[in-house]
Amino acid sequence: MEQQRREEIIATLKTVDDPELPSVSVFDLGMVHSVDVEQGLVTVKMIPTFIGCPALDMIKKDVKRAVEVLPWVEVCEVSFSMQELWSTAAITEEGKTCLKKHGIAPPPEHYVVGEEWSVQCPYCESAYTSIENIFGPTACRSILYCRACKNPFEAMKPIIAQPANDKK
Ligand SMILES: [Zn+2]
Fold first, then answer.
1. Rounded to the nearest whole angstrom, what is the distance from the C-alpha of residue 74 to the centroid of ligand 1?
2. pLDDT computed for residue 167 by the predictor
3. Where does the pLDDT of residue 102 fall: very low under 50, low under 70, confident under 90, or very high at 90 and above?
4. 84: burial class by Cβ within 10 Å (0-12, 13-18, 19+)?
5. Quick one: 105 and 70 in the same domain?
6. How many domains does the chain have?
7. Residue 164 Cα, ligand 1 centroid: separation in angstroms?
8. Contact 144, 154 (CB under 8 A)
9. From ligand 1's centre to the CA of 36, what distance in Å?
10. pLDDT of amino acid 103
11. Please, are residues 95 and 30 in contact by the beta-carbon 8 Å criterion?
């Protein structure tokens, strides 16, 4: 039964959108670290995505509200773990598809820190090579113009989790 309840929680988390990225759920962004169910008490541990995105409180409230709609849930506690590291590699395939549908290029896979990276235009899929420094240090996304189809599109900056011992 616990397993079934966990699955219900996950299905619910897939309906909670990130306020910064409408229509991509917090689950598909890879923000859900763990879900614990103990009778009517649900504990959701989440990993914050972009440092500096001021939406964490809103996400907390949205997740709590959505989970507490389930009839068997008495209380849902949501917390953000600052120990866990999120990276754009945690975005699910479904999440990437949702991003593209909304004109946002998902971050590149196999990104190596410090290297140039290219993104694909979400409309025509042509490769657009961007240069790291067009993104500010805290910006989550940036607006680019596709050279092939001339559409503006947004791209998510790749973020790779750095091991904690590199941060001295
Ligand atoms: Zn294009």
1. 48
2. 40
3. confident
4. middle
5. no
6. 2
7. 38
8. yes
9. 43
10. 86
11. yes
Q: How far is the CA of 142 from the centre of ligand 1 (A)?
A: 15
Ligand 1 centroid distance, CA of 19 (Å): 26
Is residue 123 included in any domain, yes or no?
yes
**Both tokens assigned to 4:** 């079934």
Angle CA(165)–CA(113)–CA(33) in degrees, nearest 5? Answer: 60
What are the tens digits of pLDDT across the range 128-140?
655 444 554 445 6
Structure tokens of 27? 């689950």
Range of the domain at 18: 2-80
More confident residue, 39 or 137: 39
Confidence of residue 127 (pLDDT cuts 50, 70, 90): confident
Q: What is the mean pLDDT of the chain?
A: 83
Q: What does the pLDDT read at residue 51?
A: 54
Q: Is residue 85 part of a domain?
A: no
Q: How far is the CA of 131 from the centre of ligand 1 (A)?
A: 17
CB 105 within 8 A of CB 153: yes
DSSP the chain: -HHHHHHHHHHHHTTPEETTEEEEETTTTT-EEEEEEETTEEEEEE---STT-TTHHHHHHHHHHHHHTSTT-SEEEEEE-SSS---GGGS-HHHHHHHHHTTEEPPPSS--TTS-EEEE-TTT--EEEE-GGGS-SS-SEEEEE-TTT--EEEEEPP--PPPGGG--
